[in-house]
From TrEMBL:
This is Uncharacterized protein.
Length: 89
């Protein structure tokens, strides 16, 4: 969303909502994957290692979830906000 705000092009409310929703879904699901993995690996028994593994998996999880679902989420939000007659863009 920041890159939309900082570029020289004009963006609609739909652009911001679709991009923000995509990031929210990817971040939320990536965080859930990281939390589950850290809990399975060591949890509170190994706090420093758990933190490092959680960061790495959370970061990678975001990109994995975004690659798998990001386009569909963004397209769905656009279709909902713009209506089916607009073709999504």
């Amino acid at each position: 969303m920041t890159s939309l705000a900082l570029d020289d092009e004009e963006h609609s409310r739909t652009d911001y909502v679709a991009t923000g929703t995509r990031a929210f879904v990817s971040g939320g699901l990536g965080s859930a994957v990281a939390a589950g993995t850290v809990g399975a690996i060591g949890g509170s028994e190994v706090p420093l290692l758990g933190n490092a593994v959680g960061f790495i998996i959370g970061f990678g999880g975001y990109f994995l979830v975004d690659a798998l679902t990001g386009e569909q989420v963004e397209r769905g939000v656009r279709n909902h906000l713009e209506g089916p007659s607009s073709g999504g863009r």
